[in-house]
Structure formats: C-alpha cells, structure tokens
Specification:
Blueprint lengths: L1 H13 L5 H8 L5 E4 L2 E4 L9 H15 L3 E5 L8 H16 L3 E5 L4 H7 L24 H14 L6 H11 L3 H14 L4 H23 L4 H15 L5 H12 L5 H13 L3 E6 L2 E6 L2 H8 L4
Helix pairs in contact: 2-3, 3-4, 6-7, 6-8, 8-9, 9-13, 10-11, 10-13
C-alpha cells in the first residue's frame, strides 16, 4: 500500500514539473519520506512510518496554494482487505472531513464488496454517514454497443463490416471493458475478421479465470472448487437453486447443505459475478460477465 501511494505521488510530481520545487520542499517536512533524486519512497518501519493523514493533509494544503484542486483515486478498492482496510477507511474519513480541496474517488468492479469497504450500511464504520455520489457504469444496450464500436473505428479511419461489429456485440454483450478490448485489438492488429472476436474471447477468458482464482485464493480448497462448480452450473444452464444444488451433489456425490449454497450464491452476487433474476414466481441466476460465462461454458474439468 505504501509503495502504491509512493508511486502515485511520484507520478503526480512528474506531471507537475513547474511546481516540483515547492512539492519537494513540502514533502521533505514529512517524517518517513525519503528522496532518491526526484523520486520519493515512503517508510513503513514502526520507528519512521509515514503518517498517511499528515501526508494527505500536506498535499491538500499544497494543492490549495498551487493548483486549486487535488483528486485522490483508489481503484479496485474492494481488494483492500484485513486490518489495512480499516486503516485506509479511517484515513479517507479524515481526508473527507478536513481537506479543503481534495476530492476522493473510490472505484471497483465488485459493487457489493466495494460498498462494504465504504461502510455504506455499517454505523460502526469510519466512513458511515458521509455523502456519496454514486456513478454506476452499466452494460451498454445493443444499439449503443454497435454505435460505440462504429464511432471508435471511425476515429481510427478503419472500416469494419456491420456484420462483424454486430457479431462482436452479441458475443461481448455490452460490457464496456470487453468492447474496448476488442476495439483496441482490432486497431492494433488491423484484423477486421470475425475470427478476432473469438481470439479476444479466448484471451479475455484466461484473464477472468486468473482474476477469479485470485479472488478465491484465501478460501479452503473445497470451498474454491464449489465456487467454480456453481459458476460452471449456471454457465451450462443449470441456473435455478434446485438445479445448481443437484449439479453440485452429482459432481461431489454427496448432499450439499442449503446454507452452503446460499452463502456461495450470496458471495457471488456480492462480488458482482452473478445476478439474481426474478420473473414472477420464477427465480434463476445469471453470470453477469459474458466472458466469464464463455470461460465456464467451455471449461473442461
């Protein structure tokens, strides 16, 4: 965490060269900040640890005098877990309450976990009760997805057939990140064939499976296998409670307690991997990311 903050401050200094002297002078007053040329490192030794509140206090004060505004961005904040989660939340609460020109942006791809990090519904949380402006980037609908790719290719003076664009949109299902990945790959490779869509799907599916393995890495082996089996079941059309339970039991050849499946589905929904679809009395589950759906549908156990 300290290394990431040091990296961000160094990038900030690189983009503010004309203010470098005043920035350096300010940072030198903070205990635990060490300069190596024009780059800093932050100490986290107990005897000389940088006080993050002091650091952001000083940055806010400097920004007010020199550039008028400072933006503090924490991306994929849901990955901050354990004791550090509480520490960062307390720092953000202080910055929110005491800074004059600092705006905080917290982003993440797992909405449920992100809101838990922010303490949205926890009165004991350091950030509870602070005003939030929420910006949720949802999937594009089909027409918007087609227009998004068409306008992107136009900017690069590339001609991609309507048929290929529609094929890509149908496969990527309006997820903005994958539409960008496909568009970028077309521009880089100059390949405008439908085969490229499949190649992007293959590469992206390996990426999402690695991300999923990272997400599940702290769980016991049996638990990890069950999460994978639940996703596999949903991807292959066994997408109701009873069908998912039956799928798990047939693979494991033993009875699965209802509470176990309930917790797995709850956590998958919390991590924005699965959504619960209610249609009258019918309830089923769906994998949100089409690439993850593709990865599990074609997965060989």
């Amino acid at each position: 965490m300290y290394n990431r903050i040091a990296y961000a401050v160094n990038k900030f200094m690189e983009s503010n060269r004309r203010h470098l002297n005043s920035l350096k002078k300010m940072l030198e007053t903070i205990r635990g900040v060490e300069f190596m040329g024009l780059r800093i490192s932050l100490s986290w030794k107990p005897s000389s640890r940088v006080d993050l509140i002091e650091l952001f206090d000083k940055l806010d004060e400097w920004a007010k005098e020199n550039i008028g505004k400072l933006v503090l961005v924490i991306d994929e904040a849901q990955r901050i877990i354990g004791p550090m989660s509480r520490v960062i939340a307390e720092v953000l609460a202080y910055v929110y309450d005491h800074s004059e020109v600092t705006t905080i942006i917290v982003s993440g791809s797992e909405a449920g976990v992100l809101y838990r990090f922010l303490g949205v519904e926890n009165p004991e949380h350091p950030l509870y009760g602070r005003h939030l402006t929420r910006i949720e980037l949802k999937k594009f609908n089909r027409n918007t997805s087609i227009r998004f790719l068409e306008e992107g290719f136009t900017q690069y003076n590339m001609s991609v057939s309507k048929d290929t664009i529609e094929y890509a949109v149908d496969k990527l299902d309006g997820v903005v990140g994958w539409l960008v990945e496909y568009g970028y790959t077309v521009v880089e490779t100059k390949d405008t064939s439908k085969k490229l869509v499949e190649r992007v799907l293959e590469n992206a599916s390996r990426l999402v499976l690695r991300e999923l393995e990272h997400l599940l890495s702290t769980r016991p082996e049996q638990s990890r296998k069950r999460y994978m089996l639940v996703l596999e079941a949903i991807a292959r059309g066994h997408n109701t409670w009873s069908k998912i339970k039956k799928y798990l039991e047939e693979v494991e050849m033993k009875t699965i307690p209802k509470s176990v499946l309930h917790n797995i589905l709850h956590n998958l929904i919390d991590n924005s991997l699965v959504e619960k679809i209610v249609e009258g009395r019918n309830i089923h589950y769906r994998i949100i990311d089409p690439v993850l759906q593709y990865a599990f549908k074609s997965r060989i156990r």
